[in-house]
Amino acid sequence: MSALHGGCSDFSDDFSGDAEVEYMPAPAPVQKPRQSKTGADAEPVTTGVFKTLLADLQKNILTDVTALRGDLQGLAGRVSTLEGSTQANQQNIATLQKAVHDLQQLNRMYEHRFAAQEDARRRHNLKVRRVPEEVLEAELPHVLRCMFTAILPPGQAISPADFFRVPKPTRAPATRDTIVTFCNGKDNAAVLTALHGKTPLRFENMALTFFDNLSSGILVWHRLL
Questions:
Q1: Are the CB atoms for 163 and 147 separated by under 8 Å?
Q2: Which Gene3D superfamilies does this one have (predicted)?
Q3: Are residues 170 and 204 both part of a single domain?
Q4: How many CB atoms lie within 10 A of CB 72?
Q5: Are residues 84 and 94 in the same domain?
Q6: Are both 115 and 142 inside the same structural domain?
Q7: Are residues 99 and 146 in the same domain?
């Protein structure tokens, strides 16, 4: 016992005095990382959850389809409106074309009537071509009266009313035509009868040709017939 006691005394001496004992903290417990509930750990999708998801999907699709249907109906309305406008425009164009055609015919009719009136005014006129420009306009009555006396039967008298030249020549270097106006159609017809088969007429170094003094409108109308 004394030996044991003495040993204890020695052991207590070792922990007495100024000796320091180092304290070692206990290690912290290792935390396992959290794992998501996937695979076998995930909660199973129940029939109710699936039906809810399917109902939401159907609702969204129905909403989109309804909106698309509204857009298509609006587009169909616009197309129908455009088709109606196009048909109306085509009818208006056809109406305008008919009106233009009718106006053109009416204009041609009035032009013909005007030309006929102008021709009636010129009916007693005679156009003489190739009277030289050296023959002054004041000399035309004397020269042409002498020509008429030479071609008409003896004793047949005529009464020309007027003699004048047209404002412009028919062709650039050519001489201007001369118009002879008669008081009645009998004198004009007598001159044309006397000139039948004699054109060009040789008279005082002139080769004269004669024409009816028709209006330009009548000449155009005759060419169109």
A1: no
A2: 1.20.5.340
A3: yes
A4: 10
A5: yes
A6: no
A7: no
Report the DSSP pairing between strands 125-129 and 206-212.
antiparallel
Range of the domain at 147: 123-224
Q: What is the CATH number of the domain that holds 135?
A: 3.30.70.330
Q: Residues of 73-94 as b/e, b for ≥16 C-beta within 10 angstroms?
A: eeeeeeeeeeeeeeeeeeeeee
Residue 113 sits in the same domain as residue 168? no
pTM: predicted TM-score of the whole model, two decimal places: 0.44
CA angle centred on 176, ends 173 and 181, rounded to 5° = 165
Q: Are residues 104 and 197 in the same domain?
A: no
Q: Which two tokens stand for residue 65?
A: 């389809």
Interatomic CA distance for residues 66 and 72, integer angstroms: 10
Helices (H) and strands (E) in the chain, counts: 5, 5
Per-residue pLDDT of the chain (225 residues; tens, 9 = 90+): 444 444 444 444 444 444 455 555 556 555 555 555 555 455 566 888 888 888 889 989 999 998 898 888 888 888 888 888 888 888 889 889 999 999 999 998 888 777 677 666 677 788 898 899 899 989 999 999 999 988 898 888 888 888 989 887 666 667 888 999 888 878 888 888 888 888 788 888 888 988 877 665 555 545 555
Strand order in the sheet with 206-212: 160-165, 178-182, 125-129, 206-212, 201-203
For residues 90 and 169, state if they share a domain.
Answer: no
Burial readout 8-33 (b: 16 or more C-beta within 10 A, e: otherwise): eeeeeeeeeeeeeeeeeeeeeeeeee
Q: How far is CA 64 from the centre of its chain?
A: 42
Regarding whether 181 and 115 lie in a shared domain, the answer is: no
